Amino acid sequence: MRGKMQKFGLIAMGALLGVMLSLNYSAVADKKVDSPLPVEELRAFAEVFGKIKSDYVEPVEDKKLINEAINGMLSGLDPHSAYLDTDAFKELQVGTQGEFGGLGIEVGMEDGFVKVVSPIEDTPAFNAGIKSGDLIIKLDDTPVKGMTINDAVKRMRGKPNTQIILTVMRKGQNKPLVFTITRAIIKIKSVKSKLLESGYGYVRVTQFQEHTGENLAKALEDLIKQNKGPLKGLVLDLRNDPGGLLNGAVGVAAAFLPENSLVVYTEGRTEEAKMKLTANKENYLRGPKESDYLKNLPASVKSVPLAVLINGGSASASEIVAGALQDHKRAIIIGTQSFGKGSVQTVLPLGNGTAIKLTTARYFTPNGRSIQAKGITPDIVAEEATVNGVDKDSLFNLREADLERHLINGQDGNKPEAAPVKAPAPNQEAPAKGKGDSKSDATSGEREVVSKNDYQLNQAVNLLKGLQILKNR
């Protein structure tokens, strides 16, 4: 009987693969096939499927086996490719619009555990003290080992005002840390701004969303109005910005660059993966009917002295902006080496309401530098304020090159560029409030846009003032 079941499983799987392969052939008929189909491997796959169907201790649905096989195919490629079931696909679409439920952390998988890439500013996880590089080992009482990334994200998502306990391992700590976090509706304000003092403005982009470009344009207009005239200098803060939508990054870069300047280009195996995106409205607007939100920006925005802040939490879209402004010599980049996520993920919807997120290309700056596993090297290195001589945030920095199965750079390995100018170390040894503090400097209940103790920001402002003095001379 068991032999018959095995044979039936193999026959059924063979028929299924035959259908899949015929569909695949019809879909790629116009594409060059570089190698024959791996018949032996497909036969092994069918045999394993049949063994599970006939011998596993409990019955398993075909749908579950196929979904897990798809999961394995994608998660084995690189840290950013993934299978999105119906719920995950919907959450991805909602998340880019700036509002979703959960804790507020960007995560990936490593060694079977969930690893925190970056907590999103002003979210429950951020305020609780979750750090970049934290390894989540338990969600409530359930070990994470063996979960897929989608399963882990589902458990972290939930109704507002409900709690979840995260147990994490952190570099430099001898025992796990336990955080009890209350879920909330995550409303991300992607652009924040402030007039630091007369003539000097500050704009922070926390994440690149659908409306980031137009929100930036409005923030710049407001700063110029508050200043009652053109600014003498502007700081664009991209620190701990995990990235987001590509058209948002092009829009932010286009606000400061001449029209039609190259912002980024991509290279991949297919023609669709090869793009050149310029500072042109066709590349940053969401559709032909949308009005150009950069059209009425004051001309002074294109020439205002600009300093851009980056650090190890600046990834993807934020690296595209920093790289474009650096290559065009439009801004001076200050801070520390960025994350190094220079790969393009394309979301490909499937017919059953699911999708795959597949790495399809690499990003390159206008001068042809690959961002992948290397990042953007600042023109001036300015470390965070130290405590007893140690940069406490650097202990938790996680970069693309640290992730398992990351794509190599493809140019000169993962080595950083030539050493940039290094700013003098901070004078103070006292701890300044950082992204891990749960208390706010604000008196109104909302976190301050920027802290007066922000050493890197102070270095940027001092640089802009120095440029202004030279200009006046």
Automatic annotation (TrEMBL):
Basic and acidic residues bias locations: 432-451
Family matches, as SUPFAM superfamilies: ClpP/crotonase, PDZ domain-like
InterPro entries associated with the record: ClpP/crotonase-like_dom_sf, CtpA/B_N, PDZ, PDZ_sf, Peptidase_S41A, Tail-specific_protease
Keywords: Hydrolase, Protease, Serine protease
Record region (Disordered): 409-455
A GO CC term attached to the entry: outer membrane-bounded periplasmic space
Protease in keyword set: yes
GO biological process: proteolysis; signal transduction
Short name of any one Pfam family annotated for the protein: Peptidase_S41
Residue ranges of domain PDZ in the record: 89-171
GO molecular function terms noted in the UniProt entry: endopeptidase activity; serine-type peptidase activity
Skewed-composition ranges (Low complexity): 416-426
PROSITE patterns: PDZ
Stored CDD domains: cpPDZ_CPP-like, Peptidase_S41_CPP
SMART domains hit by this protein: PDZ, TSPc
NCBIfam families referenced in this protein's UniProt entry, alphabetically: prc
Family membership noted in the UniProt record: Belongs to the peptidase S41A family.
Descriptive protein name: Peptidase S41
Organism: Sulfurimicrobium lacus
